[in-house]
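look at this:
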Amino acid sequence: MSLYVLTVESVSGSQVVGAYLTEKAAKTAAAEFVEKQEGLSFKKKLVKKDSKKLMYVEDSKDAEKKSVFMNTVAFELPVSSGGAKAKKVKDPNAPKKGMSAFMLFSNDQRNKIKADNPELSFGEIGRKVGEAWKALTDKQKQVYVKKSEEDKKRYESEMETYTATATQA
């Protein structure tokens, strides 16, 4: 990918106007820069000069003319910490996590709802399961909460033995 860098160069030095991701944006920025210059008039030129595009030259007979150049610089976008990372490989021998009370309820109810309504899509079945969960009283939910706590204890004990064997190996 290329980055377009605008510079204003004269005998006394150069200044960077900005960096742009597209050539069109760089040309627009160069035109805006030239328009904003008070008391100076520029001639438009599109000439390649030493791998730089000369875009505008100050229209004066002064020894120190200002010229607007557009340089292209090849660059790669940096990968941010939230960007694409290498996928972590999961150990197939690791124990499965404990299920939540809702997931246990969902496993019980999903087949019943699908049998009663075979035309429903996967998402619609999930919506029906969610509605059924919301309709339960706290006492009815308590059965699934207890099963969830037991499953959590199972996971913790399996994880202890898994980590103990993993550290020995």
Summary: The two ends are 47 Å apart (CA to CA). The CA atoms of residues 82 and 117 lie 41 Å apart. The first helix runs from residue 23 to 36.
